[in-house]
Amino acid sequence: MIARRWRGWVATDRAEAYVDYLDATGLSEYKETPGNLGAYCLMRDLGDGRTEVQTLSFWESMDAVKRFAGDDPERAVYYPEDDDYLVGERETTVLHFRVPWAHRGD
């Protein structure tokens, strides 16, 4: 299993609207991609008017990641309206982690 982590920053007063937008774009595309095993959206207010947003998605393999991200899976995927929400410097890459095991809180 592969975990893919992306992060960005939005104005805190627009964070909820951005999450709705993110759900309709990236998170929705994750779900539609064969080999996606799920995704989470994480948020934390930084206290300076910005909120950090991270997506953590899980994939069967790097081939599955490539079905979502294309031939350069280390490159972040952005959507047209991201420019309207994201503030500060934009990270152009994402991180991938091998997941040797996962605990499912059964």
How many structural domains are formed by the residues?
A: 1
Largest β-sheet summary: 4 strands, antiparallel
CATH fold-level assignment: Alpha-Beta Plaits
CATH architecture heading: 2-Layer Sandwich
Oligomer: single chain
Proportion of residues in extended strands: 25-35%
Alpha-carbon Rg, integer: 14 Å
In percent, how helical is the residue content?
25-40%
Q: End-to-end span in angstroms?
A: 19 Å
| Overall average residue pLDDT | 94
Describe the structure.
The protein has 106 residues and is of the alpha+beta class. The two termini are 19 Å apart. The protein has 4 helices and 4 strands, in the order E-H-H-E-E-H-H-E. The radius of gyration is 14 Å and the shape is globular. The chain has one domain (2-98): Alpha-Beta Plaits (2-Layer Sandwich), CATH 3.30.70. 16% of the residues are buried. The chain has helices at residues 15-24, 26-32, 62-69, 82-85, and strands spanning 2-11, 36-45, 50-59, 95-98. The protein is 27% helix and 32% strand. Strand 2 and strand 3 (50-59) form a beta hairpin. Strands 2-3-1-4 form a 4-stranded antiparallel beta sheet.
Topology overview:
Elements: E1 2-11, H1 15-24, H2 26-32, E2 36-45, E3 50-59, H3 62-69, H4 82-85, E4 95-98
Antiparallel strand pairs: 1-3, 1-4, 2-3
